[in-house]
Amino acid sequence: MYTRKEKIAKQLTTLVAVTLGGTTTFAGLSIWNGNEKFYRDYVMPLTRRLDPETSHRLAMFAMKHCLIRRELKPDPGSLATRLWDLNFSNPIGMAAGFDKQAEAMHGLHRTGFGFVEIGSVTPQPQEGNKKPRVFRLEEDNAIINRYGFNSDGHEAVYGRVQQEREKQDRAIIGVNLGKNKVSSMSDAENYVTGVEKFGAIADYLVINISSPNTPGLRGLQQKAELENLISLVLEARNKLVTARLPPLLVKIAPDLSEHEKKDIANVILKEKCRVDGIIVCNTTTSRPLDLKSQCKDEIGGLSGQPLKDISTRCIRDFYRLTKGQIPIIGVGGVASGQDAYEKISAGATLVQLYTSFAFQGPPVVRRIKRELDEILRSKGYQNVAEAIGKST
Ligand SMILES: Cc1cc2nc3c(=O)[nH]c(=O)nc-3n(C[C@H](O)[C@H](O)[C@H](O)COP(=O)(O)O)c2cc1C
């Protein structure tokens, strides 16, 4: 027989156990299901208590181990996009920098991204800059980073991409190539070895000449340097002995003068430098005057909302300068269906994001796709391709 006190204690213990169990199960299911409100109100505020690099590692862990449910709803037909010889079920991709080492391609694909760009990957492994090297600008919905290409190097990353390609339901994978900070090879050779290494297994390749955190890298966007670099890299791509030659893209910075933009457009329109696409754009070294966050003056590249309109203008400029002849992947500050639509109507065929995922978590992908589909239908478009460049 229990005494009255013991009975109360037992009942209390049961109550606490049931409440805790129920809460844990509810939280677990909400995370697994990608419940938007739960992420906004609980998960993301909690992750923001960690320093940004640790919270990124946590997100990578969740993606790598597929701790988020697969998006079961098929993408609306309006978002189906064909570019090069690839069929994208939707045009929203994860931008380079989130999965630098190619560890979470499958998890990101399951979350509902139409494609995943891994890297930047450098030929040899390198550690990147010393920490802290990434800063969250809470009040501005932005990030400043100066990672400086921390990379496991070609060899390790290659093995992981190869494994992903063997899967049945696999991600469309872009491989973003960077260069080592210290190298015995020339700049062009850094990229040429990347093309040779990943040419047969990448769905597309990107020459990243626009990260602000590797000394001298952005100088490769200058006319003569660019012409030399692209012609050498394209020559290497064309010499590949493989069943399919991967499309080759260049990723450019937003911090270019009108003159520099014209030069770049003229170079990539030349036959020997005719790339298959451009990614517009990387992070900016500029600091808009209305930034509010304390760490706004940290050195590095700024991404997220303050980059949004800068990037959209840049897309519109390149669409006009290249007469719509070179496909554009638009990236910078995309956090809603309207943002994605603006990039597309400025001239982008595909769209990428990074910072809004860091702030809002996986539900942002589903929401952007839903909103984009609604916008397209409200404007009478059957397919997203019809909206490309319509606001130029
Ligand atoms: C933390 C961080 C790391 C990044 N690393 C890379 C990188 O390694 N290579 C690259 O081409 N872009 C990199 N980017 C740039 C993104 O791919 C993207 O161009 C930029 O962040 C703008 O998009 P967003 O505003 O949606 O973040 C990085 C961005 C962030 C925030």
Automatic annotation (TrEMBL):
Keywords: Flavoprotein, FMN, Membrane, Mitochondrion, Mitochondrion inner membrane, Oxidoreductase, Transit peptide, Transmembrane, Transmembrane helix. It is an enzyme of class 1 (oxidoreductase). Coiled coil: none annotated. The chain crosses the membrane at residues 12-32. InterPro entries: Aldolase_TIM, DHO_dehydrogenase, Dihydroorotate_DH_2, Dihydroorotate_DH_cat, Dihydroorotate_DH_CS. Pfam families: DHO_dh. It is found in: Mitochondrion inner membrane. Its main location: mitochondrion. Its cofactor is FMN. It is a single-pass membrane protein. SUPFAM superfamilies: FMN-linked oxidoreductases. PROSITE patterns: DHODEHASE_1, DHODEHASE_2. Belongs to the dihydroorotate dehydrogenase family. Type 2 subfamily. This is Dihydroorotate dehydrogenase (quinone), mitochondrial. The gene is EOG090X08P9.
